[in-house]
Specification:
Strand order of the largest sheet: 1-2
Helix content: over 70%
Largest sheet: 2 strands, antiparallel
Number of helices: 25
Radius of gyration: 26 Å
């Protein structure tokens, strides 16, 4: 193999198979000490075992309850299927779905090897992963909706149908990666399907559809076999067309996924925000826009307004996502709390890329001739408005659809917005992970506290400043009506949090963010 790679008189001698080439690379890596160590395997197995032990029983009771949901609304079930399929399509489109390692993208793509052999393992990984997800979704759906006892043949049929559906979504994403024009033509219909399915899930309790009987065994197995046959045929076509895939698109996907892997492996996710921001602006043609001074607004806030004008698509997605807590109205209180706070943080983070840039490179801030406190206070205006608007809309929809106590939930959302914005601002100003801190000894070994402290930065303020809203969502109001006292308490928490944060963490004399 080495001789075939190192020398040869003709092109045929250089045409090594992809299997031989990968085997040769693995052999060289192993001889150089690049194989996976037993310590890495031990840490991975221990992490999986701990996660299963901690979350497995509770997750199992949620996904496979002892009794099924009584009379599930067909519209809600169909809507959830649409959300899952469209969401999977969009996720695969963002990630690749065909991804190879960055060394392979740099060296093996340019080698005299057929691209089909190089990309076949990536195709197998993508198809198998989506098939496993489809089977899991189908099994969970049967466990939550089917009457007891569950027929084994029906469960197997639904699992086959779900796995084949997942494979078809992955194969469509592979076709879109090979032909971007075809993928762009389908992005908007899939997005419309996602939003329409979410809206259907919201209106299902208000306008219930007539019940639909479960398909009989012959119909179920016919649909499953047809889906499996279509998936097999699509896989064969995808394998034949692997040679047509552009190397540039493969390298882009490999760089993106490789960066996420680096962040997970090195416990250094602090640069992912900058990576995501750069990727969102890459390839966009922007025209210069004059910054118009508005009376009473600082220049930093006006710049944030310009950024918002250029992120209209993100604002549209955030507006649609504000209905997510309402779609989860029947979930436990902690699920609603997580959905609300995560959405508020995402909304506030829309314009905080400038804060991350100014924290890492304060030279531009010094040119403005303004103190750090003035800059941070100005940068807080847009996130506070976005978080308040998103939280107000989300809680208003949740109050209308769920069985929460009646009251001014919209006002509570407006009041919690500044608190969420302060937490997002603190997270945006977080320094890189400090790996020089002393190790913390635990019964399972020592670990560096730097990554944990970085992960908790901002979340500490979020938990402390949103206590009234969290208590209201968890049902701790102590009455059947949400009074204005809870809104005033949350407004006081938010105001005190903003004032304390600006006073204690910003410099009023120097231009340092």
């Amino acid at each position: 193999m080495t001789a075939r790679l190192a020398g040869g008189s003709g092109t045929d001698e250089l045409q090594a198979s992809a299997v031989e080439l990968r085997r040769w690379v693995r052999r060289r890596q192993a001889s150089a000490g690049g194989a996976v160590s037993m310590g890495t395997v031990y840490v991975g197995v221990l992490a999986v075992a701990m996660a299963v032990a901690l979350f497995g029983p509770e997750l199992g009771r949620i996904l496979w309850p002892a009794a099924p949901i009584v009379d599930p609304d067909p519209l809600a079930v169909v809507a959830l299927i649409g959300v899952g399929g469209a969401g999977g399509w969009l996720a695969l489109r963002r990630l690749g779905p065909l991804v190879i390692s960055r060394p392979d993208a740099s060296w093996l793509l340019t080698a005299p090897v057929r691209r089909r052999g190089l990309l076949l393992p990536a195709l197998v990984r993508a198809v198998l992963a989506t098939a496993v997800v489809g089977v899991a979704v189908a099994v969970v759906g049967v466990g939550r909706l089917a009457a007891r006892p569950i027929d084994g043949a029906a469960l197997l049929g639904w699992a086959a149908l779900g796995g084949a559906a997942g494979m078809l979504v992955a194969l469509a994403a592979v076709r879109a990666q090979r032909d971007p024009g075809w993928g762009h033509r389908w992005d908007r219909p899939v997005t419309a399907l996602l939003l329409g399915s979410g809206a259907s899930a919201l209106v299902a309790p208000v306008a219930p559809a007539p019940p639909i009987a479960a398909p009989s065994a012959p119909i179920l197995w016919a649909a499953a076999l047809a889906a499996v046959a279509a998936a097999v045929l699509g896989t064969a076509v995808a394998v034949r067309r692997l040679d047509d895939l552009s190397g540039r698109r493969l390298r882009e996907a490999s760089i993106l996924v490789g960066s996420y892997r680096d962040a997970a492996y090195t416990a250094e996710p602090s640069f992912l925000s900058d990576l995501r921001e750069r990727r969102s602006w890459r390839g966009r043609s922007l025209r210069s826009a004059r910054i118009r001074r508005l009376p009473g607004l600082p220049i930093e806030a006006i710049h944030d307004l310009l950024v918002l004008r250029r992120k209209r698509r993100r604002l549209g997605w955030l507006t649609a996502a504000a209905l997510l807590p309402a779609a989860l109205a029947g979930s436990p209180g902690w699920v609603l709390v997580l959905a609300l706070l995560a959405g508020g943080l995402s909304s506030a983070d829309t314009t905080l890329a400038a804060v991350r840039r100014d924290s890492a490179q304060p030279a531009l801030v010094r040119l403005l001739g303004r103190t750090g406190r003035q800059v941070v206070a100005a940068r807080l205006l847009a996130p506070a408005f976005l978080a308040a608007a998103w939280s107000g809309l989300a809680l208003a929809a949740l109050g209308l659809r769920s069985d929460l106590p009646p009251g001014p939930w919209w006002a509570l959302g407006l009041a919690v917005g500044p608190a969420v914005a302060v937490a997002a601002l603190r997270r945006a100003r977080a320094r890189p992970i400090d790996n020089s801190m002393p190790l913390v000894d635990t019964p399972m070994g020592a670990y560096p506290p730097g990554p944990l402290i970085w992960l908790l930065t901002g979340l500490d303020l979020l938990v402390a400043l949103t206590l009234p809203t969290v208590a209201a969502l968890l049902g701790s109001t102590g009455s059947t009506v949400l009074g204005w006292g809870w809104v005033l308490a949350q407004a006081a928490f938010s105001a005190l949090g903003v004032a304390a944060y600006l006073a204690l963490t910003t410099d009023r004399t120097r231009a340092a963010v």
